[in-house]
Structure prediction request, 423 residues.
Amino acid sequence: MSHETAVGVSRRQFMRRAGLAAGLTTAGLGIDGIVAAGRAPAYTTGTSLHFLLWRNFAPPADPEILRQSTEWGRQNRVTVKVEQIPPNDIPARAAVAMETGQGPDIIQSFHNWQNQYARALVDVTDICTALESKYGGFIDYAKAHATLDGRFTGVPHTIVPQVYVVRRSYLKAAGTPGWPKTWDELRREGKKWKAAGHPIGQTLGQTVGDAPAFTYPYVWSYGAAERDEKGRVVIGGRPMLEALKFFKALWHEAMDPAGVGWDDISNNRAFLSGAIAATNNAPSIYLTASNQLILDAKNEPLVDDIAHVPNPAGPAGVFHYHYTQQLAIPRYSKNVPAAKDFIRWLMERDQFAKYLRRSQAYHAAALTSYMKDPMWEMFPALSPYRDHLLEGRHLGWKGPADARAAQVVQHYVLIEMLGNVAT
Prediction:
């Protein structure tokens, strides 16, 4: 039995421990924070993190990420500043930060944007391999978007899945027996819907989500691609020409011409107002209709008239594009260890599952184990988003999801191609 155990602590030992506890409390963590963290904080007084991410299309997700950031900061005596901006503003902010070598400690990246700045980003392979080992690996295209030259340039966080959102009653009124299985069928049936005053509403503006989520799988379904398996540019081949030729007819016969100027909000508004019969979109339309108790023209709940269905098939089959979101740490950050620990904590199931559920299944997880998460049973109407999640491809497919593929999507090259054909 030690002396300390037998007779208690000495005066010197007591004063040392009392001083440590007082210092931690003064630093802002407090006894409760130490207990909650299960350890003494690892960071010096004054440590701070600046976390830049989007303003979410699933509003309940925003207060949850703020709550989690505050909780981790309190436990670790780190000030976490969460800055949320429109998603279309993130690329410019990221570019300025990389150019000047100063800015946020953690930047949310969409698609594979961050691969343009791979050399300026911290290697987070250690975080990602640990997550893969614990939670069953990442969905393949999410991993492709987060890696370059064999290392992770960002931590795959969430996926925003996209399928078609449809008004059942509009299709029925036009005599359409079911959702078209091919683009040819969609053109034929969509012509009826447009004649009845409810065209297909497709976003083709310079916007981060709905435009690429439609454009990429559409051209893939014709066998078209930016590059082939060897990385050779093939965008000008016959499959792309066939895709553009058909799209011109599809657009003029079945789609709303205003879509060339739409952003990611425009088609939501058009659908919720009853102006369009269908649109390729994330779960946000359904969630808005449900959360706001929107009624249709018959004063019935709009959600009862909404169906979620897969993309039609082209000559090469059915394809989807679900855009990914990564968390990247710039090398200029003075608080890389804290940033990495914060991301690790966010990705643990206790936090991450709660974030997904608070987002009401607007997000899917990049980790495969969450395909079976109870979240999907909480929102059964959104299960088609899960069911078609694995049908996605990465940007640049059939080639790599590298910096060139990131530049193509960030500069809206394919979207502009279709937009020019439409107008």
In short: The chain is about 45% helix and 10% strand. Confidence is low (pLDDT under 50) at residues 1-37. The longest strand covers residues 48-54.
